[in-house]
Batch of 2 targets.
Target 1
Amino acid sequence: MKSLKCACLNNKLHLINIESTLLRALPGFEIVGLASVTIKEAATRVKSALAALRDFTLPAMKIVINLSPSDVKKDGSHFDLAIALLVLLQKEHFDSDYFVFGELGLDGKLRSSAELFSVLLFLSTHVKYAKILLPKDIALKAAMIPNFEVYAVDNLAQARDFFLNDEFRDSCKVDAVHPIFNNVIEIAGRKFVPNLNYELDFIDIKGQERAKRASMIAAAGMHNILFEGSPGCGKSMSAKRLPYIMPPQSLDEILLASAYESLNSNSSDFSAIRAFRSPHHTSTRSSIFGGGSGMAKIGEVALANGGVLFFDEFPHFGKQILESLREPLEDYKINISRVNSKVSYDTKFLFVAAMNPCPCGNLFSKNSSCICSDKEISKYQNTISSPILDRIDIYCTMGDIGQDDAPSLSSKQMSDMVLNAFKHQIERGQSELNGKLSDADISKYCILENEAKEVLNRAITSYNLSQRGINKTLKVGRTIADLRDSQIISKSDIMESLSYRMKR
């Protein structure tokens, strides 16, 4: 029996071991192991490609191909090359420690399939290192994945020589480095890719110093934030600039973000800028959270993983959508169950919401009069339930921009301060940023001085804080302390953190 490795993507990645054997029986070609019609058809493509080799004759025996594990449904034409090689090399000794992908033409030429790059991206998130044989038309792109050793061939004959000829194997290696991986920084032994692009800059926002401070705290600790203010005061501008000042991504985060994006589009690329997703308030529940009638498709909350999920006009989203936010905001995962599939996606995003203070938007305005009644204002604000508001770490009101307001901090300056706070979190040994710390980690990393404890204890009663509210106050205080290079959370840190709690 011979074997090679492959993989398939069926909502989530499955590592597949392809086994082959020859049986003394009537000549035939059988593929077993819950193979799809596409894979079953590989028998015809493989036999035709093998027939195109002048120095090879199909054995007069029954060829059996097994795709293990047998209880996982497999699909994809990229299994062709591995199946053909197992028949071709049945009597040879070769290194089976390779992942082999490629669709065969009837003449033995190799090409990539539509979903192959998605499979490779998800494979990169499951294995730390892999040797991979691929068609040349996708090899250069695949070689940019940091933890892959990529080899490329044009046809089945070259693939056979790859396993039998060491000198030819070395000539097939493809080396490429994506530009963003040329600028890697190391913090506490871990590698991160910083963003050097400030296309959207906070310098464009005049005034709004409190909103900028709140944005910097939210970015440094991955804290959920709600902006409330009159139309045109800069709520959306602030939200759209957050990804540019957020902490650098690890290599694993970049790979996972690209893998998720590949499920949503025909092509994806590596980016040092974190994801930014902004669904419209008329979007359907399945488009935001994922799903569909058949297979479970990825939604906006998963595509925002590691980045920003922005809900503009927050109260205009449907009640069902708002209440469904509880799971991804609390558990950092979204589970989608359908008849044919069950899948789970990570949802560790920075949630940003923006809303007007009233239906007409002028309640906070000094220049325009509000025309809403108290009942209308109350109804509008009560659209968002207390459990959802309790999951917001930072609440920031924004007033009108004055004629004397001027630009202040740029995104580059804010990014440098965020990076400094990020380094403190990594050097402490945290596996998560402050905003995503578990209850056990809060007691470990959120150390308060005595005066800070007294302030927090008084606030628990006066602010009527829930346990979740207490934890969020501590986590925001931890980030504020990191921004001023302190390992201990002071009284002023807690007081600033409490100032960002919503009081309704």
Target 2
Amino acid sequence: MTQNKNQISDPVPPEIWHKNLVALWFGMFMNGLGFSEVMPFLSLFIATLGHYSSSQLSIYSGLAFSASFIVTAVVSPIWGSLADRYGRKVMLLRASLGMAVCLILMGFVTAVWQLIALRFIQGIFSGYMSNANALLATQVPKRESGKALGILTTGNVSGTLFGPFIGGILASVFSYRLTFFITGGLLISVFFVTLFFVKEHFTPVAKEDNLSTKQVISELSNVKLIFGMFLTTLIIQASNFSISPILSLYVKEIMHNSPQVTFYSGIVAAVPGIATLFAAPKLGALGDRIGTSKIMLGGFIFAMLVYIPMAFVTNVWELMGLRFLIGISNACMLPAVQAILAKNTPSNVTGRIFSWNQSMQAAGNCIGPIIGSIVSSLFDYSSVFISTALLVFINFLLVLNETRNEQRSVN
């Protein structure tokens, strides 16, 4: 494969991709918010839709929670293929409008099966994140992709982490149903921001000229590295989400059933987003200078050192401080994966590669809570943090092996 295949044939003026970065960051933030905002009260909302036993409520809540992620993992490659044929902007518009309609309709449901069905459909309309990354990756010069994609990633990460906190406030101030309407309205604003402010010059590709999966893989100069990054993404997300099922319960335990548990649980959930928001752009720029893989490996080591003491905290303030540090490690890891994919993927298959990566991210979102639930049921809440540190260690060894002989091509 020739070197120029990894470059964009028609450079995009900085003023265009700078404006796109701002608009797409807003879209990424709202997209993350829309997926996670309903999490704090989803099971409570389901309880209002009928008379269910505790076991039924757990099953329905689990289905509603995981439905979107499961479907996203399946359909993302399809949207990625269409993005490479018709352009990424049209996929962004499709995703934002579809998400908005689904959330608004959730506010009208009268039965639990309707809610679960809409969560499945919401997953079908996923793809904003992967297409935003792909669009920007094809416009930004490779030497600046780490910083640009680091900034973009903070949008989704921050939205996802702040979502439960904001959703809890909205649900308590207004109502469950009105929160769905508000969130849907926010995503309609994403549709219009994308429509009017995101610029893309794209020439549609004929169906017969669209590359097959085998041809896409043949376009890659380092197949092992790219697929290694997919697995890395899955493990990162599984690590981040493994503590989701027990985080509020852990806060309740260390606060000894204080009546302020709900408030502090929201803060503990949101704190990493604050750290990621400020750290990711700086770490992305540093990765462009010293090597993206070095930043990622450093993030893994730092995460291991932070997760282990979380298992032994004695008060909520210690947990908050350590969660803040986890936000810094997150800023090292996911943006680095996006940058490595961007630097090692030809622009003509960028949409497909980023969509495959989103599938792995969604799979990690599903696997993580399962791991956390199993570990906490077999042992205790503290053990979840130890098992998460072990997952990060496995990821560290994986990436170390993948990048040891590929430093020059990765960076």
